[in-house]
Design a protein that fits this description.
single chain, 205 residues, mainly alpha, 10 helices, globular
Length: 205
Amino acid sequence: MADRTACGDAGLRGQGIRPGGHPDGADTRTAILAAARRAFAEKGFDNATIRGIAREAGVDPALVHHYFGTKAELFATAMRLPVDPREVAATVLAGPREEVGERLVRCVLGLIAEPETEERIVGLLRSAMSNDQVLAAIHEFFSEVVAGEVASALGIPPLRLEAAISQMVGIVLIRHILRVEPMASAQVDELVDLLAPTIQRYLGG
């Protein structure tokens, strides 16, 4: 059986903010984040650049890397992603191939079962559903940074992974936004047993 925990350290730690820095850097970080949100929403993840974001924020590109690391880490913070999708992906990939479907379902449902994480994921989904630019940027990020890497690691066509992710997003919408019963009140273990075989079929190759 897969690990009964959810996603290990992939929770709120994955917000992209680097430790360290100086207290007087608060204004700099705020300016960078504001510029990054505009850039990602207007240009998408792929076309937004660290150099362009730094220019709009009026800082050196090195400061962007200092405070936020890579562009993917900056995106996770700027778009307020409650988890680091790459760490979720690493958790899903770490273990027997025949249990990858169970790990994905347990990871996603386990994360959103935490009250603070649920609030932020639901908020993000609502924002994406009401803003086409935000939705496009998030989809681009997941497709390029997460889905491509996972599909490659599993040796499956990206369409299979997209199908699995789409099903999980649908479950989250029904369970946590529409709150349709009995899905809304079902236990995580019950849903894992129900959904994992289908997700495994998508990801098993």
